[in-house]
Amino acid sequence: MDNGMNVLILGYGEMGHAMEHLLLNRHRLDIWDIYSNDQFKPVVLEEAAAMADVLLFCLPVNPHRKIAQYIEPLLNKNCICLSIAKGLDENGQTAAQIFADVFKDKISFALLYGPMISEEIRANRPAFGQLGYLDYSVFERISDLFKGTNLYIEPSTDIPGISWSVILKNVYAMVFGMADELNLGDNMRGYLAVASLHELDSIVRKMGGAATSPFHLAGLGDLITTATSEDSHHHELGRKLARGETEGISGEGIHTLAMVEKFNLFDTGAYPLFELVAKIVKNPQHAKSQIQQHLKIVFNACRVN
Known about the structure:
Structural class: alpha/beta
Largest sheet: 7 strands, mixed
Strand order of the largest sheet: 2-1-3-4-5-6-7
Shape: globular
Distance between the termini: 63 Å
Mean pLDDT: 93
Radius of gyration: 20 Å
Number of helices: 13
Helix content: 40-55%
Number of strands: 7
Oligomer: single chain
Strand content: 5-15%
């Protein structure tokens, strides 16, 4: 513990608890959340931020900018802000874009994305992530942070690639849940995996990422986890949509669809599977017929080719 880091965990939800479980016996932890209860009293944000070597943003993307702007003058110049948020804010920006805009070159930041289900981390099962960074020293320090834990980390300098891979995979994960609810079978799951990755690869390159970036932990790895786990929120969202349910349909994937449309972030017409999910989210009562229509187009394209 003498050589441990001062870590401030921002947000005490599922992933905040998971990060606490990983780091509790190795580092000095402070935890802040907007809420408190009888079991948990958050630290004073200003005091803890000023002392932190690492700030873990275990929060949705939406509050990132406000919090980052507030604490930026308080941070020591050697600290690292690390986000695990897998979504877009209300301006259609990623966590990386927000950090770059707020911190400029003053504060180092990184992103950690991959198959990291909170319940499995707290059950001491292995977890895996890609760390996106601009300076290799940041990767070294974050590797030290998680040294001795069950979290495996691999490096990546392709911040746009891993950011958009992990954001978009939530959209595609929903169609896997739809297919499972409709009992379309394992062959359909295989098709969806291939089609999703092809579209992901193309979109990620358009958004500034490197070719094949989605074929790693933040893309393929997290897609398989999110798309096939019965405990996955987005898999369950897909099941609900296939049943024509509209209540409680919310999550990062739903918000991503809205932001892509609102800000016209890319031409969705070039990505049939992405468009299929978007249409079903808007009109879930006809999920089955819309998937069948999609498959007819696929089969006809195969016959033409």
